[in-house]
Design a protein that fits this description.
The chain is about 40% helix and about 20% strand. With about 500 residues, it is of the alpha+beta class. The protein has two domains: about 5-245, Nucleotidyltransferase, domain 5 (2-Layer Sandwich), CATH 3.30.420.40; about 305-430 and about 470-500, ATPase, nucleotide binding domain (Nucleotidyltransferase, domain 5, 2-Layer Sandwich), CATH 3.30.420.40.
Length: about 500
């Protein structure tokens, strides 16, 4: 077979990453560009779809094409993945009517309460998920209630950063089943928009895009777009999927019982299961592979974002050093056995398992003897406690997590992975793959028939490092873990009071 090439791009929360791979899984080019989140008010989080997504996508594509030196006639397909679920209203002129409201945005508290009281049970049965800030339905209600003119002008609503890029590439609106499930308007078993819920909420079905498998070809690169980005017109484009699903695929996690932990802006824990299963404390999700499989797990909103917050605000990398700030902080933290502190990593509320948009970050136990290394290590430990809480709930559902595949940018940190293994008493394998863009490139290759079996990707994955739990440290961490769980219960009413005090 003549060699073909595939582009995969991940439009993430803080950066855009892309790769070109061939049909043997070799990476021919890679590129990355950072972008920032817009925080207009406390608890709000937005991206400008054109500035943050499309422009960085175009720059990444141009870098990939120039580096990869791939003949245009050998480019087989494009796959795009990214952050979500978000709210992106598109007007009748085909342009966004406002900034995208991101998955981490907590402005729709009133709408969440309304939906919980009136439709909470129905939405949970349909989607397997509680109504939370992660659900798009309350964001749509907030948009309708607070920006009525924009809502009237809305032609379509999109939900993932990649849905917008796919639309810009092909002029077609489409969404994969896994992302649709996060709206609260989609039946996770029947794989259709639920007419009754939509009618009850006054959300016209025609505002919602068509749903499909992540691997379905939903269009081709249009002539004008091809000229702008330097890709041949007519190149097939697949629907794509959430970055958490494509990152999971990139690590070869696809069989029931296999589990992944993704160290990203948000820390995500997913276990593959055969059938639709739900627990009100966890997230239920759909994998991006065929035939469909499901996930049960959770997402911790700002565990990874808190690490970056610490770096950006409380530590400035010295000049005259070849080490990154993260490397220096990791080295400092490795010199102390335990932080002696408890951090609640709820810096923008929390999703699973507490589902509390009003929760806030806490550093508990500070004394004058603590240095920045203690606080940094406590932030890393907070991820371990949060993951342990999820594993405990999974076991209550009969799902025994005995090994985790570690992925995501933060997984490069050996100390972070070791802390999580020590706290959870679960072994981790770190596969140094290129993550979500690599996974969505494989999806695109499958979509155009270059691969006929998802197991193929496992041939390309190599375990780089293993983290074996230290039982002595685990027993010590257990005492802190109990404090971690109790601390939220003590403070949750105070979080509500703090919210009422804020303007």
């Amino acid at each position: 077979m003549h060699q073909k090439f595939i582009i995969g791009v991940d439009i993430g929360t803080t950066n855009c990453k892309g790769v070109i791979i061939d049909t043997e899984g070799s990476v021919r080019a890679e590129a990355q560009i950072e972008h920032n989140v817009i925080y207009p008010q406390v608890g709000w989080a937005e991206h400008n779809p054109e500035e943050n997504w499309w422009k960085t996508f175009v720059l990444v594509i141009k870098k990939l094409v120039s580096q990869g030196k791939v003949p245009s006639q050998k480019l087989a397909a494009i796959g795009v993945t990214g952050l979500g679920p978000n709210l992106i209203p598109i007007g009748k002129n085909g342009k966004p009517l406002r900034n995208a409201i991101l998955y981490s945005d907590t402005r729709s508290v009133k709408e969440i309460h309304y939906l919980k009281e009136n439709y909470g049970k129905e939405i949970f049965e349909l989607s397997g998920n509680q109504v939370t800030t992660q659900t798009v339905a309350p964001k749509i209600l907030w948009f309708r209630n607070n920006e009525r003119e924009n809502f009237k002008e809305t032609e379509k609503i999109l939900f993932g950063s990649y849905n917008y890029i796919v639309y810009r590439l092909t002029k077609n609106f489409a969404i994969d089943y896994g992302t649709a499930k996060w709206t609260g308007l989609f039946d996770g078993k029947k794989l259709t928009w639920d007419q009754k819920i939509c009618e009850g909420l006054g959300i016209p079905l025609e505002l919602l895009p068509q749903t499909c498998y992540a691997t379905d070809i939903v269009g081709t690169v249009s002539n004008d777009t091809a000229q702008e980005i330097g890709i041949p017109p007519g190149t097939p484009v697949i629907a794509g999927a959430l970055d958490s699903a494509t990152e999971t695929l990139s690590a070869g996690v696809m069989e029931p019982g296999e589990a992944i932990i993704i160290y990203g802006t948000t820390t995500i824990l997913k276990v593959v299961i055969q059938d639709f299963l739900k627990d009100p404390r966890l997230h239920s999700d759909i994998h991006c592979i065929k035939p469909l499989k499901y996930f049960l797990g959770g997402a911790m909103t700002t565990t990874g974002a808190t690490v970056r917050w610490f770096r950006d605000n409380l530590y400035k990398e010295e000049k005259q050093t070849c080490k990154t700030a993260y490397q220096i902080l990791d080295e400092e933290a490795s010199k102390i056995p335990f932080s002696g502190l408890i951090v609640l990593p709820y810096f923008m509320g929390e999703r699973t398992p507490i589902f509390d948009p009003l929760a806030r970050g806490v550093i508990f136990g500070l004394t004058l003897s603590h240095a920045r290394s203690h606080i940094y290590k406590a932030i890393l430990e907070a991820t371990g406690y949060a993951v342990a809480q999820h594993i405990e709930i999974l076991r209550e559902n009969g799902i025994n997590v005995t090994k985790l595949i570690a992925a995501g940018g933060g997984a490069k940190s050996t100390i972070w992975r070791q802390i999580v293994s020590d706290i959870t008493n679960v072994e981790q394998e770190y596969c140094d793959t290129l993550g979500a863009p690599f996974g969505v490139a494989f999806l695109a290759g499958y979509g155009v028939g270059l691969f006929d079996d998802f197991q193929k990707i496992k041939e390309w994955i190599k375990v780089k490092e293993k983290n074996i739990p230290n039982i002595e440290r685990h027993n010590k961490y257990n005492k802190y873990y109990n404090l971690y769980k109790n601390l939220y219960n003590v403070l949750k009413d105070s979080f509500k009071e703090l919210h009422s005090c804020n303007p």
